[in-house]
Amino acid sequence: MNRDTARVIKGDICYSKDKNNLAIVPDGYLVCEDGRSAGVFDRLPQSYQEIPLEDYSGKLVVPGLTDLHIHAPQYAFRGFKMDLELLEWLNTSAFPEEARYADPEYARKAYSLFVDDLRKSPTTRACLFATLHLPATEILMDLLEESGLVTFVGKVSMDRNCPDYLREEDGDAAARAVLDWLEETAGAYRHVRPILTPRFIPACSDRLMERLGEIQREHRLPVQSHLSENPEEIAWVRQLAPWSQFYGDAYDHFGLFGGEVPTIMAHCVHCPSQEVERMREKGVYIAHCPQSNSNLASGAAPVRLFLDQDMRVGLGSDIAGGTVLSIFRAMAEAIQVSKLRGRLTGDGLKPLTMEEVFYMGTLGGGSFFGKVGSFEAGYEFDALVLDESRIPHPQKLTVRERLERYLYLSGEDWILHKYVQGRKLF
């Protein structure tokens, strides 16, 4: 047993067993051995009596949260131009700001602010877009490694339909840049891993996608990108890839859409039935980003449909389409958006429940990283001890009630203690 990560945490423990079942153990014991959960107990077994006890009686203890979709370079300009829709926002806000990361000094300053706040947030695992700039991407990876968080980071690839100042020369040059990045960072990190990141089909030529498919097969890397976020974007893909059956088929054509390739597609707001079925068959992860979809007027994803088909669904902040890092906030907004969708579309899809969105933010998204997002025995030990002191209540609440109001009322940094893989970050 590794004494550096062995610990027992006492508190009011909540975790998902599946999308419908929330386990609650008031005044329970959570045991960590060798960076993994050994289980949750009403009474501490004799065999664990010698492990150091951290007593947080009366505090909520939950698994660490996973953010499946963040644009790290956009953190510096979150909250700007939120009256625009996606494509106009990219051209007038996102692309000009991301170009600043060609300057490593600026990148270090901006990424330091981002990583410091991410470390203090409820997030323990995250999948991040960087920019196309190699030095800046490596700076981000260095800072994340120092933070103790576990992350996937992607050097963005894009060689068309973007400003000249943010466009790679062509598909072959963009692929060489990815290979250079992989070579320069190979073996350099314990907690940061690379992920292939074609920005989206409109910004990636067929040649670039072909080369990324070759790189994926050679290096066995996961993939992240965007899918069916905005009607105008979808129509654009239809023009650029007239041979494809639907947006997701344009990724699948190049072998970058699930199956043996772990894949995250963000948004999935306007997926036709064929696309949903392909995602289900291929095990594609859906990163639902409710705040971003509202801010950029993209619409409301049919998450109930995805969950009812046992598809893989997690949550994303989508900084800076979204403006806050807290996945607790994303949980609450996922419920709210699902209610609005049902009211405005009349599609008959029931609103999401608290149990479902908590699952999405923990076990649902966490499973992209392996056995992550739960306290059942054998899962990697990511945990949060929550601070409810700023939201007192005149009545005695159940543990479930306390958790539910925490989703809606907590601030981004209301975390007393945070653990990743058994390591105590603070």
UniProtKB/TrEMBL annotation:
Metal-binding recorded as keyword: yes
A biological process term (GO) from this entry: guanine metabolic process
Protein name per the record: Amidohydrolase family protein
Gene Ontology MF terms in the entry: guanine deaminase activity; zinc ion binding
Coiled-coil stretches noted in the UniProt entry, renumbered to this chain: none
One GO term describing the cellular component: cytosol
Keywords, ordered alphabetically: Hydrolase, Metal-binding, Zinc
Species of provenance: Candidatus Lachnoclostridium stercoripullorum
Keyword Hydrolase: yes
Entry superkingdom: Bacteria
InterPro entries per the UniProt record, alphabetical: Amidohydro-rel, Metal-dep_hydrolase_composite, Metal_Hydrolase, Metallo-dep_hydrolases
The protein's required cofactors: Zn(2+)
Amidohydrolase-related domain boundaries: 60-422
Record-linked Pfam families: Amidohydro_1 (PF01979)
